[in-house]
Amino acid sequence: MSETTPTHATHTVFNQPPPLEDINLFTTDRVLTEALRREGAEWAEDRARTFGEIVGRRETIAWGFQANDHPPVLRAFDRNGNRIDEVEFHPSWHALMGLGVEHGLHALPWREPRPGAHVARAALFMLLAEVEAGVGCPLSMTYSVVPALRLQPEVAAEWEPRVTSTVYDPRLVPSWEKGGALCGMAMTEKQGGSDVRANTTAAWPVGDGYELTGHKWFCSAPMCDAFLVLAQASGGLTCFLLPRFTPDGARNRFHIQRLKDKLGNRSNASSEVEFRAAWARRIGEEGRGVQTILEMVNHTRLDCVIGAAAGLRWGTARAIHHASHRQAFGKLLIDQPLMRNVLADLALESEAATTAMMRLARAYDGEETPFRRLATAVLKYWTCKRAPVHAAEALECLGGNGYVEEWGMARLYREAPLNSIWEGSGNVQCLDVLRAIQKSPESLKALLAEIREARGADHRLDLFVNELQHQLERPEDLELRARRLVERLALALQGSLLVRHAPPEVADAFCASRLAGEGGRAFGTLPVGADFRVILERATASGNP
């Protein structure tokens, strides 16, 4: 090499953001901290702060990557050919599950039935879901099973202490030998899907229980200790609790046929199962299986809203963090006007989702059954529908890095559609809204009363609500217009909450872009005059926007 030949430091890395880790995911989320206090769970602030620090650690974030890099494996038989139907998980999965159970994400409101308990749990659940959404499934179903179990007091007396224990015990042994238990669900069948009344699983009484024979197309979290299932008894479609072990300690005839190879949620096991005269206990009356299992479904739908809000928050935080450290064309990306618009728009969507989700969680704490009956379906539809497009835009903010697995945005993108599908897809939610409006008019009255709490505070919101009222009064083509109607209900609720609780700059940008039509159809189309600084400051997890 000539003495005049320049040397190039080709392995020097610069203009790349540091990892977003070793931060407190709770204290750096202003919207969530404000909502926790406002919605009645200020007593849980210390535990949320502690949990936010734990889940924001580098080690915890790494567990999420590892659990997805090493997905669960089905061990249907032992080496001698005996049927065992076990699911093997990476240690990182168990570490995340242990965190969730130890901090009560599966049981907090039942262990501590006090005002704000569901709000506190919602905040904790959101924080863990930001790091890894896969563990949310078994935690959510275990939390949600308790209201259904209580319809059968003798079963609840036996099982509630197990499923509300804060001991995580992943061993596949009889539940009475464990420190704690988890519960799953198996409703849908290959010929039915959301049409659970097409169920063909048969149930007949034997002794002090029933025996079930059938095939479930989706069984969530098959490693759990028991499952709520639907089957046809002599009195009609009925709900049952089917444990992995019979009362004499034998393995129940619950056979895992395969694990589903899914788009996302890959750290969690979802399966197809077969019951061959499997022993179970009835929950609720014969013939009222749908009504009984809806006690569980209503709470898991709340968790779909929480999970979607978590994805919106994490995508926003990652995009802002990247843009705050990455330079292009002579200045930071976050200082580029168009990128600033995109980031602020993402942050606005996240703030609206978190604010509405926490208000919904409060409805589960008190005597607000009519409000939560309709608001749950409305917010599940809209928040979950916004998640995939939001994830795509947040990913794009990282450019090519966002498309690479090790940056985490690809996993977020694959995860984004799930909450819209789980526990009733978009059309199911919209039809549920119409059913609630027609059969429970008090639910619409309660939702509109909440929306009108902001009457007179912003003329754009008032005009939007007036038009919404007009649309609700038109009886023709309701089903055909259902998606648009539910969308408007969700936007009106989010707008009302932001007008009442968010800084004026945030509420103004939301009303202008979402209600008054001054924004476009893509993110990054907030109108000129929107205060990006205030919006971004509230959403920034680290550094200065």
Describe this structure in words.
The chain is 50% helix and 13% strand. It has 545 residues and is α+β, with helices and mostly antiparallel strands. The chain has 2 domains: 30-287, Butyryl-CoA Dehydrogenase, subunit A, domain 2, CATH 2.40.110.20; 291-539, Up-down Bundle (Butyryl-CoA Dehydrogenase, subunit A, domain 3), CATH 1.20.140.10. Strands 3, 4, 5, 6, 7, 8 and 9 form a 7-stranded mixed beta sheet that branches. Strands 1-2 form a two-stranded antiparallel sheet. It has a two-stranded antiparallel ribbon with strand order 10-11. Helix 3 (58-69) packs across helix 4 (91-102) and helix 11 (369-397) packs across helix 17.
- CATH class membership of the largest domain: Mainly Beta
Helix content: 40-55%
Instruction: Return the domain count.
Output: 2
**What name does the CATH topology of the largest domain carry?**
Butyryl-CoA Dehydrogenase, subunit A, domain 2
Low-confidence stretches: none
> Radius of gyration from the CA trace?
24 Å
Q: Which whole number gives the mean pLDDT?
A: 95
Please identify, by name, the CATH architecture of the largest domain.
Beta Barrel
Instruction: Based on Cα principal axes, name the global outline.
Output: globular
Strand content: 5-15%
The helix-strand sequence is HHHEEHHHHHEEEEEEEHEEHHHHHHHHHH
- Global structural class: alpha+beta
Number of strands: 11
**Sheet having the most strands:** 7 strands, mixed
